[in-house]
Write a structure and sequence with these properties.
The chain is α/β, with parallel strands linked by helices. It is built from 13 helices and 14 strands. A hairpin with a 2-residue loop joins strand 5 and strand 6.
Length: about 500
């Protein structure tokens, strides 16, 4: 040690000068880095929305799952905001996606129905051209836009992403369980074949823009290929503002994973699928950092509705929440939601109410744009919450089931007008003779009816719902249009 000290012993005045120069240099570099970070965060931000399919509130490690390992999403939550009261616009695929992209409840666009609850390969409808999507709003602000993954807002050319504001599209245009190749009925097929299915059982198309490039799509590699497309898009567009909408086809059944993840989780095939999605999230975060745009990119991760409980271990978990996909109990519509934006979003757990309906106004506002005032919006700008302010514009939530209002929430209280099977299927509604009231702040599992204790709150929520109904104008259902039947009706 003495010899080392002697090797690095300098005259005291020279030592002091060197130390002073070093400290000044470090301070300069630190200050310069801080200025660069501030400059980066004042640029027009990029946006990425990751939207999974049928993933439950309890299906991530950071949301309490004991065996599914999601280190990348967990880190994303620890570095950003984890929301615990975040809702989708509907409890099934198509209307939920319409709500996210338009900021409007699907009842306003005709993207819901009590007869056909989602779009199918024989559907003749889709998201109307009159609706303004996030992509269209951001195109007005100079953004390059891409949709990757599941679309499910109309597979005919006029409804595809490239006609809804997206510059490019790569993905499966509807649910990965459609185009079933079997002589059996849908549920009969699943009862007999759930452990022996292959990608050839589902003749779903993989599309690039408006062209089918593979059919049936090889779903064992679909998560990896979506991820590769996403990373490529980030790399090619890092010099200009971009919006990426990555809607995974999984963990909607049928479940498929690549060989790298097959049999690797402690939760069986479903866990394998989630852990591959977590890997995908890690690849995207790594790409943002390597391309130097992580400090200027807001990433949102959430899911379209709750878990499909009727499929047992092939479905997910809503954690402590009641119900699942196909119902507007909390387990069907409250989703994991993580907002990540290094340098802008400080780590926090947010228990305020938020919704996918809020993404359009939030992203448009952050991009410097404004929404037109010629239509009714159901979303709010949450940017103040994202930036750490203890305020929120959203204090309520309307829960639709098809065209019916299943329940409504104001503050901590949720008032129920209907009941249905908490498994989601069969999904028939039962009108309650006596409404139910739950305090979700202390009873998120929806166990204790306290309606007799709070008649004043019931009146407040009823008045809120009545006011909302006054803003809803009847429109044609897009989900009830069927190819052939629509044409026949038009020829009469």
């Amino acid at each position: 040690m003495k010899q080392l000290n002697s090797l690095y012993s300098y005259p005291s005045n020279l030592k002091a000068s060197a130390i002073g120069l070093l400290l000044w240099t470090l301070a300069f570099i630190g200050g310069f880095s801080e200025v660069k970070a501030q400059e980066s965060n004042t640029e027009t931000p990029n946006f990425i929305i990751i939207f999974t399919d049928d993933q439950g509130y309890g299906d991530l490690g950071v949301y309490g799952h004991p065996t599914i390992k999601t280190p990348n999403l967990d880190r994303m939550a620890f570095e950003g905001q984890k929301w615990t009261n975040f809702y989708v616009a509907a409890n099934v695929c198509t209307p939920s996606r319409a709500g996210l992209l338009t900021g409007r409840l699907p009842i306003r666009s005709g993207m819901c129905s009590d007869k056909r609850r989602v779009l199918f390969p024989d559907s003749d409808g889709g998201l109307p051209q009159s609706e303004i999507t996030i992509a269209e709003a951001l195109k007005e602000e100079g953004y390059t836009t891409a949709a990757i993954g599941k679309w499910h807002l109309g597979h005919l050319p006029q409804y595809l992403p490239t006609n809804q504001g997206f510059d490019s599209y790569y993905g499966i245009p509807y649910s990965n369980d459609m185009d079933l190749v079997s002589d059996l009925g849908y549920m009969e097929f699943w009862q007999q074949s759930v452990d022996s299915i292959t990608t050839d059982n589902f003749n779903v198309p993989l599309m690039r823009d408006t062209t089918i490039i593979e059919r049936p799509a090889d779903q064992t590699t679909i998560t990896k290929r979506y991820t590769q497309e996403a990373v490529k898009f980030i790399s090619e567009n890092k010099e200009k503002p971009f919006f990426l909408y990555l809607a995974h086809s999984l963990p909607h059944i049928p479940l498929f994973v690549s060989d790298d993840f097959k049999g690797t989780s402690d939760r069986g095939l479903y866990g394998d699928v989630i852990e591959e999605i977590d890997w995908s999230m890690g690849e995207i975060m790594k790409a943002l950092k390597e391309e130097g745009v992580d400090q200027n990119t807001l990433v949102v991760f959430t899911s379209d509705n709750g878990p499909w409980l009727i499929f047992g271990e092939h479905g997910g978990s809503a954690g402590l929440l009641h119900g699942g996909k196909g119902t507007s109990y909390e387990g069907g519509v409250r989703e994991p939601a993580i907002f990540w934006w290094p340098g802008t979003i400080e780590p926090a757990v947010i228990s305020k109410i938020g919704s996918t309906l809020d993404l359009l106004p939030t992203l448009t506002g952050l991009a410097g744009g404004q929404l037109p005032d010629d239509r009714e919006y159901d979303g709010y700008d949450l940017s103040a919450v994202l930036k750490g302010q203890d305020v929120t514009p959203r204090e309520d939530m309307i829960y639709y089931h098809g065209t019916n209002i299943f329940a409504a929430r104001k503050g901590d209280y949720k008032l129920y007008f209907y009941a249905n099977n908490p498994l989601g299927y069969p999904a028939n509604l039962e009108k309650l003779e006596k409404y139910k009231l739950i305090n979700l702040a202390i009873d998120p599992s929806e166990k204790e009816d306290i309606i007799d204790e709070h008649p004043e709150i019931v009146k407040e929520i009823e008045a809120m719902v009545a006011a909302h109904k006054q803003t809803v104008e009847p429109v044609e259902s897009q989900l009830e249009k069927v190819i052939g039947q629509t044409e026949a009706a038009g020829n009469q």
